[in-house]
Type I restriction modification DNA specificity domain-containing protein (Arenimonas malthae CC-JY-1), 267 residues
Amino acid sequence: MPVPPVTEQRSILGSLDRATTCIDALVAKKTRFIDLLREKRQALITHAVTRGLDPGVPMKESGVDWLGEVPVSWGVAPLKSFLQFRRDIVGTDSANTRLLSLTLQGVIERDLENPTGKMPASFDGYQRISAGEMVFCLFDMDETPRTVGVAPQDGMLTSAYTVFRPQSELWARYLYYFFLHVDEYKRLKPFYKGLRKTIRPGPFLSIQVPRPRDGDAEAIVDHLDRTTSRIDTLIAKTERSIELLREHRTALITAAVTGKIDLRPAA
């Protein structure tokens, strides 16, 4: 491979440094923009599920220490008013059942043909979950980044998780957003038990949560569906632009060091 003179090497390196520095600065700005979007998304969720959509709504004490104030027209109710615990082991039907997993992106289907991470020798001990049911990770709750999800389809998931059948789609949607807020600030710490920071299904269902009027709850989840969807779309576009910038950076370096582009100063 031909090697350019040292003076040309220095010139090429200088041009590459300037170009890659500009790209790196742009990537940093876009990354910060994504961070701000995620902060805004979380703030919108927190405000909506704890105070509703009216910024001037009068508040009252909920009577529940961990909740604090709620809007005057709201009540509080135990989770057992909205959720029913269920466990249905899949058994030998596991071979014909989709494998689902709780992730930061929600409940997603796992690819068994190209598995990643640890997989059990058998899925017969996994549990069924139906579309629209809620799944919670109620152990290691301080270390788990996402402890709540709603199944988009029927499937099975590890029996380490806890599955609940919601009273209705409306309350599944509201509680999903409410527990995204709870997750973010790890608000359930007073209820943890043991070294694994676990909440058993019975005590979990006794936890008191806000109870907006049905119309308020529907307005809240519709609003959050719209606003979070717009933010998620913008985040995805920005992430894609970062990916393209990084690809361009790599291609630029490769092209420069292999002589496919000329970065030498004009004579």
Q: What stands out?
A: The domain at 75-112+120-209 is CATH 3.90.220.20 (Adenine-n6-DNA-methyltransferase TaqI; Chain A, domain 2). Helices lie at 6-51, 169-185, 201-205, 214-257.
